[in-house]
Predict the 3D structure of the following.
Amino acid sequence: MTAKGSAIAGAAGALALLVFGAVAIAQGPGPRRPGMGFFGGPGFGGKVVTCYPFSAQAVSKLNETLNGRNTISRTECAIIARDGNGDTYEAVTPDADPNSPTCSSSTAKTIAITNVAAGMRYFINVTKGTYRQMTLKTPPPGARPPREGKDSKNMQKTDLGSNTISGVPANGTQIVRTIPAGQIGNAEPITITSTTWIAPSLEIVVQSSRVDSSRGTSNYQLSNIVPGEPQPSFFTLPSGLTLEQGGRRRRFQRPPAQ
C-alpha cells in the first residue's frame, strides 16, 4: 500500500489510558486491555483473520478508582472494519458522549490500518495530517503461540454458552482470577472477572467486560454490525498526508492467517 493507498492512525495518548479488554485474559490488577486493539478495546486481537469481512461501531468505557477516592471515567468510540483479505481499519473518536456514544470516520482523531499484503501497519494523526508506518513481523515456521499464565489454581473459567449480541450469535466465556492477599503486596484478595463474547460467524469480540475489585470496570461493545465487505476507501491512505520520519522502528508480531 502506497502513501496514497493505505490509511492508519497514530495512537492518541487518551487511548493509552483506555486499557480495556476482552480477548486475552489473566492479567494483573486494573482494567487493562486484554487484547491487541488499537484503541481501548480488544479490537482485532493482533491476529490476521481472512474471509470474515465486516464493519461495525465499537464503544469502550472505563471507570477506574484511584486511591479509593479519585476516579477516571472515559468513553471512546470507533468505526472498525476488516475485509476478506484480513486488512483492518480502526477510526477512533476519543472523549465520546458517555450517554450516547456515536462516531463516524469524519469525527475520528486517529486512524489505524493494517495492510496484510504489504506487511505494514499505518497510523494516521488526523489533526496533524501526518502518518507513521510500522512493519508487521511474521513468526518463523513452528513458532509456538504465547502460553497462558501458570496461576491456574487461582483462576476459574466458565463457559457461558451462546447468546445473541448486537444481532449476531456469540459464544461467551467468563474467567475469574483471584490474587491472594500478600501476593503483590495487597492487604486483601483481589478479584478480576473478565467476560468475553465472540461471534464465530465474524471471528471477532462483540462484547466484553472486566471488573477489578481493586481498580474499577471496563466495558466494550460492538453495534451496527454489517457482515460483508466494507467500503474500499477504509483501506486507502488519504492524499496529502506527511510521513513522519525518525524514532525507533517498531515491529508488530503477525500471527499466521486464519
